[in-house]
Every structure is written in C-alpha cells, then in structure tokens.
C-alpha cells in the first residue's frame, strides 16, 4: 500500500493560503471599521443624532440614549487625535476633539471624548460602547 505524504511545497502553499485568508478577514474588519466610524461621524456632523444612536451597542446605552437632547447642536469640527487598537484588534479606542455651536449662541465650544468601539464577531459589525457626546 502506498502512503500519501504531501510535498513540502504543497504544505508551504497551503500555509500561505490559510494565512492569506486570515489577512483578508482582518482587512475586511478594518475596512468595515473605517466605513462605520465615517458614517457615524457624518451622522453627528449633520445633526442626525437619531441615526448616530443606532451605532450604540443594544442594551443599557441605547435605552439611555436621548438623541432629542442634542437638538440645536451643530458640530463644526470632529477630529480623531489618537487611535489605539487592542492586540486582537476587536476593540478600538478613539481620542476625539469635537467643536460645536449651540443654536442661538455665537461661541464655539470644545469637547474631548474617548470613544470605544468593539467588534461583534457574531453579527460581523462594530458597536459604539460609549454614550453619545454630552454637549454642555
């Protein structure tokens, strides 16, 4: 009986393919993060706080969210100052500086916020784990 022993070249090719698949999944997850955070930022900039609240992880955060309390707030600048990723890349922390105006006021206010985003493997999406900014 003849035994089948894979050649070293075949094993190497198989390992490269497996590593490539893992890299593609990571690239897709990073691209999804970029798209979701850009969409969230656009919702905030345009004052669509109801849409922005849909990025909150379902549970206590969404139950406590009151997008109506942000009415009359216009964001003038939304700047990511720093980004930290967890070693497994399932959690990203953004250090933000948000400048905004309140309707009827002439002065620009600044708010610093640290946002945490977590990847939900089951639903293949990112969730915002921190409340919407509290504009004073």
Structure description:
This protein is an alpha+beta fold. It is built from three helices and four strands; from the N terminus they run H-H-H-E-E-E-E. It has a four-stranded antiparallel β-sheet with strand order 1-2-3-4, with helices on one face.
Derived structural class: alpha+beta
Proportion of residues in β-strands = 25-35%
SSE ordering = HHHEEEE
Roughly what percent helix?
A: 25-40%
Count of DSSP strands:
4
What is the residue-mean pLDDT, rounded to a whole number?
A: 84
Strand line-up of the largest beta sheet:
1-2-3-4
Count of separate DSSP helical elements: 3
What is the alpha-carbon Rg in Å?
Answer: 21 Å
Could you give a quick summary of the protein structure above?
With 136 residues, this protein is α+β, with helices and mostly antiparallel strands.
Index terms:
alpha+beta, single chain, 35% helix, elongated, 136 residues
């Amino acid at each position: 009986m003849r035994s089948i022993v894979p050649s070293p070249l075949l094993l190497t090719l198989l390992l490269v393919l497996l590593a490539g698949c893992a890299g593609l999944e990571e690239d897709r997850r990073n691209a999804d993060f970029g798209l979701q955070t850009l969409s969230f930022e656009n919702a905030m900039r345009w004052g669509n706080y109801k849409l922005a609240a849909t990025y909150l992880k379902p549970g206590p955060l969404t139950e406590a969210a009151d997008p109506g309390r942000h009415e009359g707030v216009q964001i003038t600048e939304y700047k990511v100052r720093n980004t930290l990723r967890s070693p497994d890349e399932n959690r990203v922390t953004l250090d933000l500086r948000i400048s905004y105006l309140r309707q009827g006021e002439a002065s620009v206010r600044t708010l610093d916020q640290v946002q945490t985003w977590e990847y939900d493997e089951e639903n293949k999406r990112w969730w915002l784990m921190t409340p919407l900014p509290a504009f004073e």
